[in-house]
Fold this protein.
Amino acid sequence: MLQPNDLPLVCLPLDLPPEAAAELIDFLHELSEALERHYGAALKHHYDALASTQRGIASDDPPF
């Protein structure tokens, strides 16, 4: 079974002090919010297209 430090793209320190952990989490939240602001229109377009495709598939299926 994989352990947290076995993941190739994520290497988390084992003994991170609570204050540093809080700062890291705050930074990651700010980063994800910045990414959402920057790519927001593209994300909306992508998810709208997926929803439209899924509705089209569902409406083409016979009810029985």
Summary: The chain is about 65% helix and 0% strand. The first helix runs from residue 18 to 60.
